[in-house]
Write a structure and sequence with these properties.
With 198 residues, the protein is α+β, with helices and mostly antiparallel strands. The protein folds into two domains: 41 residues; 144 residues, Rieske [2Fe-2S] iron-sulphur domain (Rieske Iron-sulfur Protein, 3-layer Sandwich), CATH 2.102.10. It is built from three helices and nine strands, in the order ααβββαββββββ. The longest helix is centred in the first third of the chain and has 38 residues. It starts with a helix and ends in a 7-residue tail after the last strand.
């Protein structure tokens, strides 16, 4: 074997070892990157917490309310009866923001007298806008006291009417928030997504 043959074999061997090392390094880096990239994806729990929530409405009777959780927030779904709807204008002079003029409190489709897509249904976050306590429902009117029914915060006494609008002279500065929502069917709403809301 000549010296040129030995040189050629050494170059081929070096070339092979270089290519093998680069390929092994790339494959190893790829395998090392997979868990890192997977860790950037939100967990199933985080995805579930941010996902819209379906609420079946078929079993809710007029005058009844259900509570659901959406993104860790309590949401009230109230089916108002005819009497409740008739009472909404009676205490309008007692309200701080009767026309829902604070824009970020509700989507455009809920900036109306009933603060809802459909007057029968009220969907509001169950968190007082003062310090975040959960208001209690008290739907019985006591017009002698100027109370047409609604929500009462037990922490500091804030009051909200049957449309989630705040009364004057209480610590809460704004109305209860209306989350994005839409009717999927007449008996099903989706809270957290309002694309296609009617």
């Amino acid at each position: 074997m000549t010296e040129d043959d030995v040189d050629r074999i050494d170059r081929n061997r070096r070339h092979f070892l270089t290519v093998a090392t680069v390929v092994t390094g790339v494959v190893g880096a790829g395998f090392a990157a997979i868990p890192f990239l997977a860790s950037l994806k939100p967990s199933a729990r985080a995805q579930a917490l941010g996902a819209p929530v379906e609420v079946p409405l078929g079993s809710i009777e007029p005058g009844e309310m259900v509570r659901v959780l959406w993104r860790g927030r309590l949401v009230f779904v109230l089916r108002r009866d005819e009497d409740m709807l008739a009472r909404l204008p009676e205490t309008i002079s007692e309200l701080r923001d009767p026309n829902s003029e604070v824009i970020d409190q509700q989507p455009d489709y809920a900036a109306n007298d009933t603060r809802s897509v459909r007057p029968e249904w009220l969907i509001v976050e169950g968190s007082c806008t003062h310090l975040g306590c959960a208001p209690l429902e008290d739907f019985e009117p006591r017009l002698v006291e100027g109370w047409g029914g609604g929500f009462f915060c037990p922490c500091h006494g804030s009051k909200f009417d049957l449309a989630g609008r705040v009364y004057k002279g209480v610590p809460a500065p704004t109305n209860l928030r209306v989350p994005p929502h839409r009717f999927v069917r007449d008996d099903l709403i989706l809270i957290g997504q309002d694309t296609g809301a009617a």
